[in-house]
Amino acid sequence: MKKVLLTLSLIVCFAAAMYGQSEYKSAIGLRFGAPTSISYKTFISDPGAIELYAGFRGWDGYSWFAVGGMYQHHMQFPDVPGLKWYFGGGASVYFWNFDDNFNNDDAGNTSFGINGVLGLDYKFSGAPVNLSIDWMPTVFLNGYGNGFGGGYGAFSARYTFK
Predict the structure, then answer these.
(1) Can you give the pLDDT at residue 6?
(2) pLDDT tens digits for 122-133?
(3) How far is CA 151 from the centre of its chain?
(4) Domains along the chain with CATH numbers
(5) In 10 A of CB 95, how many CB atoms?
(6) What are the DSSP E strand ranges found in the chain?
(7) By the 8 A CB rule, do 156 and 133 touch?
(8) C-beta of residue 140 within 8 angstroms of C-beta of residue 151
């Protein structure tokens, strides 16, 4: 997973060096990660954006549906005109479904999480496409997954609106 994230980050950086970035107001698309989600992102100020997502993930023995939102603060990436990096945080709710043989009795069916986020964001000039890659560590406050669930990352591709 680390090699995939590194490769995708390098692709975004090289693309940013080759093409200028144009700004966008909002974007909708897919967030490929854990979970694979529908993502909507809108800027509420020059550096500040809100991203909302809803997604599903299935695994052997369990599946879950998650909804969440986060605030992201965007900064210009040094020495690469147009590429931005961002950080922020938010909250999420997870709804779990277990097979009878997988679930332990003390795990709940709903979990609440506090998220952090750190990522790169790029908007292609002349095309309504935005790409981003990020890492979203999560601390689950209750239920299944209670505690730190730190390995969630995603690659997002979105259609942008001015």
Answers:
(1) 47
(2) 988 788 999 999
(3) 12
(4) 2-161 (2.40.160.20)
(5) 14
(6) 26-33, 36-43, 48-59, 62-76, 84-98, 110-123, 129-135, 138-140, 147-148, 153-161
(7) yes
(8) no
